[in-house]
Specification:
The model has no long low-confidence stretch (mean pLDDT about 95). By secondary structure, this protein is mainly alpha-helical. The protein has a domain at about 40-270: Hypothetical protein af1432 (Orthogonal Bundle). α9 packs across α12, α10 crosses α12 (about 240-260) and α14 packs across α16 (about 305-310). The chain has helices spanning about 5-15, 40-50, 50-55, 75-90, 95-105, 115-125, 130-145, 155-160, 170-195, 205-210, 215-230, 240-260, 260-265, 270-285, 290-300, 305-310, 315-325. It is flat. Helix content is about 60%, strand content about 0%. The chain has 17 helices and no strands.
């Protein structure tokens, strides 16, 4: 019996009967030989961690566009915080922590430069629309690894695709990530908003603070404990009604005070115009796309979608540099 098989046996002995066991995975789209040391979900986690799309997340906006300071969240730090919260919940409930971590690390791979502003811009011009969760799947199935994709297990892809509020993951691990994503962004976006002097802790409605707590630490502790207590021994992931209602209302408060606040979002129209112009430029100059993009078109991928792939994969600064290169006049030197 090799190391992987020993780990698979340990999962069956220790994990909850509602957990997703590695040995029972529905597999990959392309068959491949099993690793002798790592379970399938551990391999998926490692593939995501080492892919280019994951590394680019460190240069993509979470909420605040080009903030002046080193301590504001990026799409990468958001991903790491989601992973930490999700793993804490999964460990307490004896779910498959490796599957949970793989889904969490991969859930935002498809995000555009400048966060949801970039997503909105591409959605407005792309013929079939643009949704970052679907783009994440496109990345792991096709765009990474020179057009070969990462060949992830179906459980990991299901969790990535269904991490949005409207999604319905097929595993409890996916449901944990779906909730952890909300818990992470509500709390760290509030922390960033306080740092950016957009709001103060004292301004948060008292009835919400009384239920959830009046600091980030207390809120995280309350939300995580509530999920674990209400999900333990059940074939579902859930929160108590009072805590769930408070979190929903806190999210609504954040949309009102932060996500639509001119101080935080005043530059978004510029981002949208910039990315739309980049899209239109490359649609009319397909030959200037990178070789990997041209190869995809040569294999039958629609040019409009490939242009979206290229722009969505850009970091914030790379998209600005490309825009300046293409549209901003340069001084003429004799």
């Amino acid at each position: 019996m090799n190391f992987r098989e020993q780990l698979e046996c340990l999962e069956v002995e220790y994990l909850s009967p509602y957990a997703a066991y590695s040995k029972d995975s529905k597999g990959r789209d392309r068959l491949e030989e099993k690793c002798d040391m790592r379970t399938d979900y551990q391999r998926d986690r490692d593939r995501i961690l080492h892919c280019k799309s994951f590394r680019r997340l460190k240069h993509k906006t979470q909420v605040f566009l080009a903030p002046k300071g080193d301590h504001y969240r990026t799409r990468l730090t958001h991903t790491l915080e989601v992973s930490q919260i999700a793993r804490s919940i999964a460990k307490a409930l004896r779910l498959n922590e490796d599957l949970t971590e793989a889904i969490a690390l991969g859930h935002d791979l498809g995000h555009t430069p400048f966060g949801h502003a970039g997503e909105s811009a591409l959605n407005s011009v792309c013929k079939d629309g643009f949704r970052h969760n679907e783009q994440s799947i496109r990345i792991v199935e096709l765009l990474e690894n020179k057009g070969q994709g990462l060949n992830l297990t179906r459980e990991v892809k299901d969790g990535i695709l269904n991490h949005k509020t409207s999604g319905t993951p097929s595993t409890l691990e996916g449901k944990v990530v779906r909730l952890s994503d909300k818990i992470a962004y509500i709390n760290h976006d509030m922390d960033d908003a306080v740092r950016g002097q957009i709001l103060t802790e004292e301004e948060i409605p008292k009835d919400l603070s009384e239920i959830l707590g009046d600091t980030t630490k207390k809120r995280l502790n309350k939300l995580i404990h509530d999920i674990v207590i209400n999900s333990d021994g059940k074939d579902d992931i859930m929160m108590s009604d009072p805590v769930n209602d408070a979190m929903v209302r806190l999210r609504e408060y954040m949309f009102e005070r932060v996500y639509t606040n001119p101080l935080a979002k005043g530059e978004e129209y510029k981002v949208k115009e910039m990315l739309i112009q980049l899209y239109n430029y490359y649609i009319n100059h397909i030959d200037l796309l990178p070789n990997e993009s041209l190869t995809l078109i040569g294999k039958g991928e629609h040019a409009e979608r490939v242009v979206c792939d290229y722009i969505a994969g850009m970091s914030d600064q790379y998209s600005v540099n490309k825009f300046e290169e293409l549209f901003v006049p340069k001084a003429w030197l004799l």
